[in-house]
Amino acid sequence: MAGKSAAQTVLVTGASGFIAAHVTQQLLRAGYRVRGTVRSLQNEAKVEPLRKLCPDAKHELELVEADLLKPDSWKSAVEGCSHVIHVASPFPNAPPKDENSVCKPAVEGTTSVFKACEQAGTVKRVVLTSSFATVSGGLGTTPNYHYTENDWPDPDKMLPYEKSKLLAEKAGWDYVKNMKGINKFELAVMNPGLVLGPILSGTYCTSMEVPKRLMLREMPALPKIILPIVDVRDVAEAHIRAMTLPEAVGQRHMLISGSMWMLEMALVLQKEFKSQGYKIPTLIAPKLALQIASLFDPTLKYLIPSLEIVASFDKKRFTDVLGIKPIKNEDSLIEMAYSMIENGFLPKKPAYRKP
Ligand code: NDP
Fold this sequence. Notes:
By secondary structure, this protein is an alpha/beta fold. The protein has helices spanning 18-29, 44-51, 74-78, 100-120, 133-136, 160-178, 209-215, 232-244, 262-273, 287-293, 298-303, 316-321, 329-342; strands spanning 9-13, 33-38, 62-65, 83-86, 125-129, 145-147, 186-192, 194-196, 226-231, 252-255, 258-261, 311-313. The protein has a seven-stranded parallel beta sheet with strand order 3-2-1-4-5-7-10, sandwiched between helices. Strands 8-9-11 form a three-stranded mixed beta sheet. Strand 4 (83-86), helix 4 (100-120) and strand 5 (125-129) form a beta-alpha-beta unit. Residues 1-7 have low confidence and may be disordered.
């Protein structure tokens, strides 16, 4: 185990992302020294919101450049850190044509970060942001299945993004298993469901996709699917607890506080935003119509096996071990939609094309 003399500096990779910005803010508020990585310090849209995260922080946020595809960029980023929260990974809002565009940075990036941690010799623990997709494989297809951290899907049956997360998490576990010598560090893995809640980062992220599609009526009717949900503030808190809690070492943690049908999400948004001019769709798309449409739309094809499938999720590690008292799914959804309006990702006064 690395020496205890290392300063309590925490590295957050991809600090400007939706989840990582909350992790960074909570760490700063708790008084940690925080170093965050961004791909370019010249990118004002990403860097400026980070400067405002915690104006009265005990230690000013340090920002450095690092890229998952540039192995050499991680040595100086990790130098002197006692903990690393590795969040950065591509999260596209549509399946890419070439799976390598996500798998390569996810897997090689994880290996580069872990190698730099071992070489630094000061890192005690890494918390890796994986995904619930590495437990379920994507949207569930087995009726009434109860998911636990012991579940691992088959990578050959997964879409590119989900596969990138699975291969990256496996690369992380393999790296730690094969480490020898005094620079060994511990690993805790976080597996969040769909993360919702207020936005601190200045740029669009894939988590906004479902609320945006509902608020802008981009889908005329709703597929009958259920989504596992968790609030971004709870996800950030879980990462920080996992950084020091002895029970988190060597474990995966499903971060899911509940689940909602798309229709339930639509009804929550309709109740809150109808009076503000938003026309949220609340019709369920018939299965047959979706099956026909899926012949022409590959995204829909992926949904078909998950239609009407109900699953449940083990929350023990999230609530009992990490001790999180989850924010209600409805509140996360509403706060995210308001935050998207405030930050210009949704219009204050929506205009819809006539059908
Ligand atoms: P964001 O897209 O907001 O954040 C992704 C971060 O990864 C960004 O900071 C991005 O940097 C960084 N990144 C991507 N590619 C590279 C690269 N080549 N080099 C360096 N940094 C890179 O998404 P989220 O915050 O939502 O997701 C963060 C993590 O959480 C991801 O690992 C995602 O898979 C995981 N996750 C997210 C869920 C969700 O619902 N949001 C659910 C489950 C898991 P840049 O800003 O420069 O693009």
